[in-house]
Write a structure and sequence with these properties.
Order of helices and strands: HHHEHEHEEHEEEHEE
Radius of gyration: 17 Å
Strand order of the largest sheet: 3-2-1-4-5-9-8
Number of domains: 1
Structural class: alpha/beta
Shape: globular
Largest sheet: 7 strands, mixed
Number of strands: 9
Helix content: 25-40%
CATH architecture: 3-Layer(aba) Sandwich
CATH topology: Rossmann fold
Length: about 250
């Protein structure tokens, strides 16, 4: 199934209106709590301790950026292809007085200089827009300084297979793990075609781009839960998210 970039951009722009409608709620959330999961905080702690510059491709509402600054980042630069998402995140950063800056752009092809980041933080719905993982990983590596880190916390590639039935976990009959994509039929991407890749393909793309995988973990906890739904697939028996940490090879050292 082919991804239509224009249609996907339109769908994400429409979904990003939620960031505007819920601006006050998200502002309070950013001010009063962290959007980073406990395991994210543990894994990120040594990366953020030196006060790195972080680039966050596909930054969305920007709450993670504010949390990254609170956890030690000197500055965060968010990149998102939705002008609505960028404007909302920029306004929130200004209101809170945090060093988070935003540009409109897409991956691959982020409008940032080579080797501008100590850490690239991404995920939580980012890879579903990436039909070419090799191109994505190559651009991530371009943004990183030698010795810099990619931190990816993302929905597990098997998640599109799980139903939202509440009595017991089931597999959707209209999807397969090795498919290339599928039409999103739930919020926030109504009508968008999401890319699909196996976990092995994600890891291989990162390695091909010149990064060494140091951590790969899988979790039962999903990074996002639809409101009002208590799916049995989220209760601990199936993988719903994963974390990957990879270091850009320093060929000079």
């Amino acid at each position: 199934m082919e991804l239509d970039v224009k249609q996907n951009r339109k769908a994400w722009e429409a979904a990003s209106q939620k960031h505007v409608r819920e601006y006050d709620e998200l502002l309070a959330q950013a001010r009063d709590e962290t959007s980073l999961f406990p395991r994210e905080q543990e894994l990120l702690r040594p990366l953020l301790r030196p006060g790195p510059v972080v680039v966050h491709p596909q930054s969305g509402h920007g709450l993670d950026d504010i949390a990254l600054v609170a956890a030690g980042a000197t500055r965060v630069v968010g990149v998102d292809f939705s002008p609505t998402a960028v404007a909302s995140a920029r306004r929130r950063a200004v209101d809170l007085g945090v060093p988070c800056h935003y540009v409109v752009g897409q991956m691959p092809g982020a409008p940032l200089a080579n080797a501008c980041a100590d850490v690239v933080y991404t995920g939580k719905g980012a890879l579903i827009w990436m039909p070419d993982l090799d191109a994505w990983a190559t651009d991530v590596a371009r943004l990183l300084r030698p010795g810099g880190w990619l931190f990816l916390y993302e929905s597990h590639p098997a998640v599109p297979l799980w139903t939202w039935d509440e009595d017991e976990p089931r597999i959707r009959g209209d999807r397969g793990y090795f498919e290339r994509g599928f039409v999103n039929d739930t919020f926030p991407g109504h009508g968008a075609v999401e890319a699909q890749a196996t976990l092995g393909e994600v890891v291989t793309a990162v390695v091909r781009a010149g990064m060494e995988v140091r951590v790969l973990e899988e979790y039962a906890e999903p990074f996002w839960r639809a409101g009002g739904v208590d799916a049995a697939a989220w209760r601990g028996s199936l993988p719903n998210s994963f974390a990957l940490m990879a270091r850009k090879v320093d060929v000079g050292g």
